[in-house]
Amino acid sequence: MAPEIGFIVNPSEGMTISVNKGTCWINGSCGMEDSRRNFTLDAGTSQPRIDIIVLRWDNRQAARNIDVFVKKGSPSGDPITPSLQRDSSVYELCLAKILVPANATKITAGNITDTRLDTDVCGIVVGLVENIDTSELYNQIQSDLNDFRSVEQQEFLAWFENLKDVLSGDVAGNLQLQIDECAKESDVFLLSHPIGSLFETTVSTNPGTLYGGTWAAWGGGRVPVGVNTADSDFSTVEKTGGKKTERHEFKVGYKGYYGTAVGSDDNMIQAYKYSTSSYGTYAYEGSTQAGVNAGIQASTNTRD
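Below the sequence we write its predicted structure tokens.
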């Protein structure tokens, strides 16, 4: 068989496998397949079986050809590979062995064993009179593959089964809920705004509409002042004080008395007395410095 062209067997859909195009030499005859061909295997039964894909040289009068065939094995608890027919009339080369598991409805790559390099059942053509014995190489490949399946693959399957147990039931559900929760922008916002936090904005939309949670308008018409525990006027959180307008008044007052006698008239002393009393008042009444209004919402959210 010419290795550069193929006849490699691959899984397709369901129970269908495909055989690649290729060229072969059997008993001095040349066979050629110029396109990929599909073959559908029988579905699995209650016990596994082994089918093989063969190139068949048929020298009987009714055939006189080389073609690809599926040889179906017998279902068994310990299935065996179908034998190859090799006589003067029919000569077969095995391209691949296919394990059909019990009740199988699909063939995977893991079910197919490539036997093209096995000189005992197939082999490759390298010259007119001599073949390379690839059985040793094939056996080594199969040995490595079997070692992998028996050790590394089993370890992987054991790890995977343990992982499924860890993620089963409530654990998996809780993990998914946590992932979903962390993925929400609204929850990130609420986590960063615990109860008592303030959210200030220039629009009137309640943040609960945007992010959820519960919010209450806070500090309407007032300017926030930081708490100062050393000053009784500012020592209590949310204590209010002051008013919108203030009146400032300043009073100035003077009151005095002055008297004197001047000259004489008929020996009478004239006295002139006067007193003064003067008060002044200055008053200012007005609003505080102009400001700008902003909506402030206080978080009333409670979280676990």
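Residues 9-133 form a domain with the Triple-stranded beta-helix fold (CATH 2.60.520).
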